[in-house]
Amino acid sequence: MKTFLLLLCVAVSLSVAHAQTAPPRLIVRADDMGYSHAGNEAILKTYKEGIATSVEIIVPSPWFPEAVAMLTQRPEVDVGIHLCLSSEWDNVKWRPLTECPSLRDADGFFFPMIFPNKNYPGRSLAENKWKLEEIEKEFRAQIELALKKIPRISHVTHHMGCSELNSEVSAMAQRLASEYKLALGPGSLGMKRVSYQGPKGTSEEKIASFIKMLEGLEAGKTHLFVDHPGLDVPEVRAIHHIGYENVAVDRQGVTDTFTSPKVREVIKARGIQLISYGDLKR
């Protein structure tokens, strides 16, 4: 018995020591592929020329077909389905894939918001009489179309927190992920969400705040950073909603950060291991 306890203590000590000496792991997730042509270009740019390791695709979005074509040409990119129940931009809209009246606004689009927003009174999904069975129907349709077009998809995530409407929706989303054998993170994969540490109004501020975040990553832990690449071009300047008007500048800053040589230098110097959701499933 004493020998067993001694061996157990040694094993635990070795495990702790390994965790303390192992490099931090980081997933850099580029969200919302499909929201615009420039967004598609920027997201793939951050993968090809930068540090993005996983890409999230919005299936009912207007530029989904182009996103599929682009990702077909890059079979090594780790892709996730970004399940969506909202259409937040004022100048460009998208609709459910299914006949689900409780998920549509008066014009047939998704509601602009998931949760109540003072700028869009009464126009969030949460404020309307949504039906659980219709959300499940829509989620299934999005998952199945994504898998049909991009069979290698490894995981599922949720745009604007749409799976958090209530505990029933959360449980259903987890059940679907399991049914379709898709990872559901970050909690189920043991990841810790991290974010900018400091101002992020300009590209320079974003880069500095991102580097500060990198310097605080814990050894032996898996971290998840999420943001939305874009380009400061006329197309993206026309995309906005009340309360988020500087979309083009903001998302250009994300692209600049994810492709920054300074960021790469810090990642190399700290020995940070860039991984994807797919890596965690292997």
TrEMBL record:
Signal peptide per UniProt: 1-19
Keywords in alphabetical order: Carbohydrate metabolism, Hydrolase, Magnesium, Metal-binding, Signal
Cofactor(s) demanded: Mg(2+)
Gene Ontology molecular function: any one: hydrolase activity
Protein transport keyword on record: no
InterPro entries membership: Glyco_hydro/deAcase_b/a-brl, YdjC-like
Pfam families found in the cross-reference section: YdjC
Keyword Secreted: no
Domain of life: Bacteria
Swiss-Prot/TrEMBL GO biological process terms: carbohydrate metabolic process
Designated name of the protein: Glycoside hydrolase/deacetylase ChbG (UPF0249 family)
Species the sequence originates in: Roseimicrobium gellanilyticum
The organism's taxonomic lineage, starting at the top: Bacteria, Pseudomonadati, Verrucomicrobiota, Verrucomicrobiia, Verrucomicrobiales
